[in-house]
Amino acid sequence: LLDNELTAMLSESYSRAYESIVMVQMLSELEETIDVKRNPEKRRIVPSVWWNRLQGCQRSVEDWQRILQVRSLVLTPDEMRQMLLKFASLCRKSGKLAVSRRTILTLMDCDPDSSAPVKLPFERPEVCYAYCKQLNCEGRRDLALSQLQLLLEYGFKKPATLPAELLSLKARCFLKLGQWSEQNLINEDSPNVEVMQHYMYATELDSRAYKPWNALACANFNALLYYRQRAPIPLFQCQNDNGDSPLKPLNPNLLVPGTVPDDSVITMYAVQAVKCFCRAVMLCHGNSLQDTLRLLTLWFDYGHIPEVYDTLISRIKTVRVETWLQVIPQLIARIDTPRHFVSHLIIEILMDIGKNHPQALIYPLTVASKSSSSARRQAAERVLKHMNDHSPNLVQQASMVSDELVRVAILWHELWHEALEEASRLFFSDRNVKGMLDLLNPLHALIERGATTMKEQSFNQAYYRDLKEAQELCIKFRQRGNLRDVTQAWDLYYNVFRRITKQLPLLSSLDLQYVSPKLLKCKNLELAVPGTYDPSRPLVCIQSVQRSLQVIASKQRPRKICINGSDGQEYWFLLKGHEDTRQDERVMQLFGLVNTILLQNPTTCRLNLTIQRYSVIPLSPNSGLIGWVPNCDTLHALLRDYREKKKILLNLEHRIMQRVAPDYDHLPLMQKVEVFEFALEHTPGDDLQKILWLKSPNSEVWFDRRTNYTRSLATMSMVGYILGLGDRHPSNLMLERMSGKIVHIDFGDCFEVAINREKFPEKIPFRLTRMLINAMEVTGVEGNFRLTCEKVMSTLRANRESIMAVLEAFVYDPLFSWKLIERKC
């Protein structure tokens, strides 16, 4: 029976067959149990074999419980201690507190909550530690704190005689004691001496553990921020040694409240935070982005202080070069800082990266070398010159490929069209003649340098004479100041603008032979395919670039380009001009951290709530490559195709509103709402729901896709809310064909800038229209959507320090801070 069931289930999907596989494992272990009963010698090896097997199971409370029940037939609770403690932890994280409590009490052989006073079994400290965590999860925090203090006092011998496992456990106890104490003091702003001491003891007991160093680093960082913003009270002093010793607390009784110390207190905290973050980054085996960004914040804000600079010089050498690869955009954004100590160290690190991982640095550094800021350009060129000493071919190829891709991204026709449109606004609306001339002069200089491609030659043949005549009129205006000259120039400019406007819609494809022959001749380069470099994987270089480029019919007319890799694969990209892609690059950093956090949590990991990411490679301040997300369609395209097949007007809802109220824009608010609701009542709004059904081969695939759609929509709704993401129209939302997941693109409007728009401000936290809701399950938002939102938000809130570290890097990044200020103004 089981064989037939398992065969049938496996043919459908692994998830359908998983329960049967667990049943097979239980039967197998039942046989092993009988063998152990017959042959007691096997009892010694069975626990370790079963533990390793349990690690391969899904983190499901029900499955683990059934498996452990079988194992309890032959093993005592003490022999199953490791398994039961892990099971209790799984139960706590899954919200099964009653099951977790029963499991721990089984290991304790007593109930501390009984009427008779019972002493905790301190001879089994790991069980007592689990019991303390159980109390904290149940909301009995004061009791958990006191019991943990008792465990630390009576549960461990002197550190010199403890084995490594117990030293590590004691360190975890001090770490947890510090965290719980910090939670109890959440309403107090000032740093707490006792909390820092707990973290310090944890680092001393287990100097190879990441979490204690991270906690101590964050405590010092927060204390630094506190004393920076308020009248500080010095709590710690540094020992005058090589920096290896931990913080040394001052006597709190000697502190005078309200004392305003000199800058040495700020310096001390900055030094200690740098030491701890460097150590944490070095020990981190997962995603260290949040710690690295906090370290960069200290570096950029306090690196000009000699003591902090000396600490950075000595400690940064202990950090692996690979760690800096994830924050290259932030390093390059500060490459032109006026602080000499800071810029000198940044350039040194970039040179190290360039020497060890030139492929990772070459693209962003090439962008910086094209900056309009002379200081930024010179700093980038200094690093490029150093790279040129050991990788001359790579530097030359990167410069050529980058220049040619920018040339293809923005043709002269588009460049002049965009510039003339902006210049007309400056001249006719703002009456800013100087601004208009300053905008057009670089373009005149560009065409004077001569055409290098056949497409540019055709542009000169069509427009050079008119543009040259207009330029001469502008030069006359500069000499004589007669406005009539500029007016005559605009007659010529407008003629050029009108002809280009007619020509641009005909641009549906490009041939590299005409727009970039150099790119067409690129063969077998040393340069990596953009966005593919990973130090842990084989290098994929550019073998060639496919000749034909498709021009996407949209406002900015991006190109779809294909690069052939040396591994035989095709790599598709969206080549975008007229748009700064560096903000999208930073958003991908945030999504990478969010994915790490969601994968670390058993619940969110099991639900597959990761966000779809793609590579973003800026090529210049206003162009870049976006990795093409395969097997995806925008919601707009899906709805358009569906309605065309069903003979439904694409803008049916708008047509109904216009028929009911032709002067809709001039109606009072209540009447607008009435007309809007009328349109909703007379249209079903189930297009997306039917699309999901019609595109699924069977009901099981449809069910999986609908579930994935709902969960991915909920995940990105929460992350988008935190990021303040706007402009979520159907062309910026994509549906993955195979999985049904929602994929977001275009992250130009972040930090709630869309709320402050003059026209159509977005006051909503995230997009959740009726068409999106109707595509969910029968309960709408009251089901998977709400549950996923709550799980994602609670998981992100539990890791708020990490999220805030990335968001702070956004706000204080000089590349974007001016944009935020400009939008506020």
Automatic annotation (TrEMBL):
Keywords: ATP-binding, Cell cycle, Kinase, Nucleotide-binding, Repeat, Transferase. Residues 1-371 form the FAT domain. It is an enzyme of class 2 (transferase). It comes from the Eukaryota. SUPFAM superfamilies: FKBP12-rapamycin-binding domain of FKBP-rapamycin-associated protein (FRAP), Protein kinase-like (PK-like). CDD domains: PIKKc_TOR (cd05169). This is non-specific serine/threonine protein kinase.
